[in-house]
Every structure is written in structure tokens, then in C-alpha cells.
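tool=predict chain=A
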Amino acid sequence: MEQAAAQAGKDRKKAVVAYRNLGAIAGLADPKRALEAYEKALALDPDDMESLLGAGEIQNDYGDLSAALKSYKDSLAIRERLAAFRSRQRSLAARCCNKLWPDRPCAQAVRHYGRGAQRLLERPGDDGAPDADFAG
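tool=predict ok
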């Protein structure tokens, strides 16, 4: 049962990407078809930022300003949730770094350099020490 659910999730993600790509390609010649593809992607994943912005651009170009504005506002809400998530992610990475390597300024690196510094946690050396790239 869990495998079926996992496969369904993967299939859904693939379908979202396929519809999004169709929207981008169709947008070059057939904006109506592109908008339909973006809407199908959004029906599967309402938080798909690329489809949301693609749909909003087409809506704006064709004068459906209320729909374009809704797409814009929805994208802002998603961005705010992602920003909060990233902030929590950096905070957790900093706390983990401090526990793993208390003699290194990991927390400051994570706060200031975000993703690059998080590699400390994702790719430690064989001995549990940070990679040479990040050793202070």
C-alpha cells in the first residue's frame, strides 16, 4: 500500500512537470493551450510556482487581470511559506553544525551562506569531519 502511494506521488510529480513543460512550449504559439496545460498542472499541484507564474503571465497578456492578480497573490503566499521553511532549515542546520563541530563557526556560515554551508551536514568526510572545502 505504501509503495502504491509513493508511486502515485511520483507519477503526479511527473505529470505536473509534463503539463508545465507543455505549457511553456505551447505558449510560443498557442497561449490558450498553454494556459490549459498550466491549469492542469496546478490542479495536480496548486503550489507549482512555475505553472502558477506561467498561467499568470498568459492571463495578464490576454487581459484577464483579475486572474493574473490572483496568480500573483498565490505566488506571494507560496514564496512566504518557502521563505519560512528555508529559515527553519538554516536554523536546524546551524544547530546541528554546532553540535557536530563545536569548535567551528558553523552557525554563522549557515546563516550567511545558506546552501553552501549546509553541505557540511550533507557531505561530511569519512571521519565525520567537514570536507576540506569547509574546514576553517
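The mean pLDDT is 79. The helical segments are 2-26, 31-44, 49-61, 65-100, 106-113, 115-122.
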